[in-house]
Amino acid sequence: MKKPWSGRFKQSTDTLMEQFSASISFDRRLYAYDIEGSIAHCQMLAKCKIISQAESKKIVGGLKRVLKEFESGKFQCDDRLEDIHMNIESRLTELVGSVGGKLHTARSRNDQVCLDIRLYLRDEVAEIVQGITQLAKTLLQLARKHTDTIIPGYTHMQQAQPILLAHHLLAHIEMLVRDRERMEDAFKRINVMPLGAAALSGTGFPIDRKYTAKLLNFPEVSHNSIDSVSDRDFAIEFCSASGILMMHLSRFCEEVVLWSSCEFGWLELSDAYTTGSSIMPQKKNPDAAELIRGKSGRVYGNLVSMLTLMKSLPLAYNKDLQEDKEPVFDTVDTVKVSLAIFEGMMKSAHFKKIPLDRVDISGFLTATDMADYLASKGVPFRQAHEITGQTVAYCIASGKTLQDITLKELKKISPKFNADVFDHITLENSVQKKNVYGGTAKKQVLAQIARLEKKLKIKSTIGEKK
User: Fold this and answer.
1) 328, 235 in Cβ contact below 8 A?
2) Are residues 134 and 229 in the same domain?
3) Which residues contact 425 (CB under 8 A, 6 or more apart)?
4) What are the pLDDT digits (tens) for 168-189?
5) Same domain, 242 and 345
6) For residue 454, what pLDDT band results from cuts at 50, 70 and 90?
7) pLDDT value, residue 130
8) Does residue 282 register a pLDDT over 50?
9) Which residue is catalytic, options 72, 156, 223, 278?
């Protein structure tokens, strides 16, 4: 098959090389965006009198027919035509004749593919933002149900202080809110129109790039033609934001795995998001959480692939850039399905009632409150910390907890202890005393829920997918 660039070549392309260089196997998913961009480009050419209105109408009609063929599943891609751009142009020419060849006037595949990826990511990021928002809202509903549920908070995976379960869930929502903001911010760099840069230096035809941008709903046109065709920062930024998002999901998934274990026994996952064992009949495995946790690695890998691809790449366009699509496509697919699965898993999950004696397994969850009690009595905190540490050591040696020890025993350790200390070291009072902004006291947690509800009701700055 004759190549569109075959004019200066005497030999045909090696078959293996033809297969090696073709991208149609993966870039065919850009077909709708390639056609959308081509229609706008064609209409701009007609406006600028580079082609006639009649030619434009004929080309646009042909492109719409090609789109219908794709949507109906009738379009057959040809690997010999290398990519989605040439497959569409070839079919267009079959449908409308040689006038179809005028579509490529004043553009190159270099700026064409940049446009396609930006159009694609613009829609996909809008969907991802919706997915993040929906997950955050689901977790917020869960938090509302547990503003009185006390759980142990951990540091170093050791019981640290009592907190409200709602407070813990809100921490994950805060991460998701930042993820949404990062995606919205990355969208600004995605939403720039590169068409008109042509191969690298612009074009000698009197085109109107701003008109094309208006047709495609781009608020900004790229400013440097060389940068326009060689820039993939927007894609790297998307992969980076996705990597952080997947890291956040992975952290939560680790907790889901722990909480649903027999050792914790806090969380019951729906059968719809768990699997069994082929040999152990009793097993109920948290596969959804484990898979999301695992898939974070492939998204990290896609980011590293993109950074490595661009490392030391000279200006302007290089064939290396063909390798940008698969990491981006895979990141989009992985992030979208992970958000959907995680949202479904948490929406159908059930937190069990945790008895207070199981909350404070160590028996020393309110040790910090005891130290704070002594500090409130005028004991310097460092000294209060030491006295409390001595108390804990005594309890361990005596087989007791802070709730078991008597006032008489406490008095032997420090005369500063009085009977009111026992009110300060209950789990409930410990939680309610953390009444600082951002703390775990119920009043603060309710205020944070109200703040996040208001924030999540605000429509995304990038709107919805068309």
Assistant:
1) yes
2) yes
3) 366, 369, 370, 373, 402, 403
4) 999 999 999 999 999 999 999 9
5) yes
6) very high
7) 97
8) yes
9) 156
Q: Is the peptide bond before 316 cis (omega within 30 degrees of 0)?
A: yes
Give the Cα separation of 70 and 63 in Å (integer): 11
100 and 117 belong to one structural domain: no
Instruction: Note the pLDDT of residue 465.
Output: 47
> Is the pLDDT score of 464 beyond 70?
no
Establish whether 430 is a catalytic residue: no
Q: What is the reported pTM? A: 0.94
Residue type, 450: A
Half-sphere exposure of 378 (CA within 13 A, CB side): 2
CATH of the domain at 171: 1.20.200.10
Q: How far apart are CA 211 and CA 228, in angstroms?
A: 17
Tokens 């927007």 identify what position?
234
Would residue 222 show up in a list of annotated catalytic residues for this protein?
Answer: no
Of 333, 357, 381, the residue that ends a domain is: 357
Contacts of 324 (CB under 8 A, 6+ apart): 117, 232, 235, 306, 309
- Beta-strand pair 158-164/150-155: antiparallel
Residue 219 lies in a domain: yes
Task: Report the chain's terminal Cα–Cα distance, integer Å.
Answer: 37
Q: How far apart are CA 194 and CA 88, in angstroms?
A: 20
Across the range 294-298, mean pLDDT stands at 98
In this predicted structure, the answer to whether residue 226 has a pLDDT above a threshold of 70 is yes
Q: pLDDT band at residue 320, thresholds of 50, 70 and 90?
A: very high
The count of other CB atoms within 10 Å of the CB of residue 393 is 11
Q: Out of 261, 277, 376, 398, which one is annotated catalytic?
A: 277
Of 143-147, 361-365, 367-371, the least confident:
361-365
